[in-house]
């Protein structure tokens, strides 16, 4: 199973960090590849989640079937909506912004529902592994 990072990092557009900084960090964390939107939300690019540019880039580079991937994220209005648009599985983790995405900010992503609400990343990983087992 491959692991990719897909992230909005508008601090890059302010000159506070570089794409290379993030790529190095994700490499060190053990990701197989990383896809980074460096734009500010006002630039209206095609890669700032919930737009799907980053997903399409990953799909092309790694020949992914987007209907079979699992998106794990903590923000409903970006991660879950982007996943919804391409038909991917969606896991919202309660860490980071996740708990508030599920409650205070639920109205920002009403179009869809997570396939699973995970307490944390390990919980999400176990859900995926169990799903894999069930499929065999
Ligand atoms: Zn972008």
UniProtKB/TrEMBL annotation:
The keyword Hydrolase applies. GO terms for molecular function: hydrolase activity. SUPFAM superfamilies: HAD-like. InterPro entries: HAD-like_sf (IPR036412), HAD-SF_hydro_IIIA (IPR006549), HAD_sf (IPR023214), Heptose_bisP_phosphatase (IPR004446). Keywords: Hydrolase. It comes from the Bacteria. Pfam families: Hydrolase_like. The keyword tRNA-binding does not apply. This is HAD superfamily hydrolase (TIGR01662 family). It comes from Shouchella xiaoxiensis.
